[in-house]
Amino acid sequence: MDKEMEKLQQDLLKSVRQMKAGKAARTTQVALSTIAETHVGWADKPNK
Question: What is the pTM of this model?
Fold first, then answer.
């Protein structure tokens, strides 16, 4: 197997191990619109 393929495999294994350990490489935060915030608020209210 060529060296590039071996490097790719090692990088993938490293990434999978990090994901399983809960170590995210990056996180994304999205600003919610007013409608989305309202919708999320509905989930907090118990059904009667």
Answer: 0.46
Residue recorded with tokens 């608020």: 41
Higher pLDDT, 9 or 30: 9
Cα separation, 33 vs 39, whole angstroms:
10
| Local structure of 33: helix, strand or coil | coil
Determine the residue type at 41. Answer: G
Q: Which domain holds residue 8?
A: 3-44
Round the CA-based radius of gyration of the chain to a whole number and report it: 20
